[in-house]
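agent> Task received from the user: take the single chain below, predict its 3D structure, and emit structure tokens. No templates, no multimer pairing.
agent> Plan: (1) validate residues, (2) run structure prediction, (3) serialize to tokens, (4) report one or two observations.
agent> Step 1 OK, no nonstandard residues flagged.
tool_call: predict_structure(input=
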Amino acid sequence: MAKNMKRKFVTVASFFVSSAASAQNQDRFSDGELRFESMHIIGAFFNITLIATIVFIFVKLFLDNHIKNKLLDKGAPQDLAIQLLQPSAKNDKRVTIKWVFILTGLGIGLLVANYTQPIGIHSIAIMCLSLAAGFLGYFLFINGNDKK
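)
tool_result: status=success, residues=148
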């Protein structure tokens, strides 16, 4: 029994000694590692989004052209094919306004997060609230225009 207690004591003592002898920095946010990693993640996300958007646009153009040619081969009037595949101008304006509100909220969130250094979990909360405010502004803008 004394041998078993000695073994437990040695195990616990070696754990505490090894954790006390650890010379690593325990605060990951103080040396800029978070900023470095977040810039890499944002850059990779931006590149993937850009490539996916370009592929999506080319596929959409190809399929629209394919549908238009099939409609014309079937004998549909050309005006009908053009009218079916042409996006509405009102929808384009709404998409533009939506992105203006979203990017403005994102910019304001980044500005506020930059002035509340160091960057941490509160920065994520600031970004979420600013994006939510941007979406709320877009919602109120659209509802205001629809009532007119």
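agent> Step 4: summary for the user.
Helices lie at 2-20, 33-74, 78-85, 89-115, 121-147.
agent> Done.
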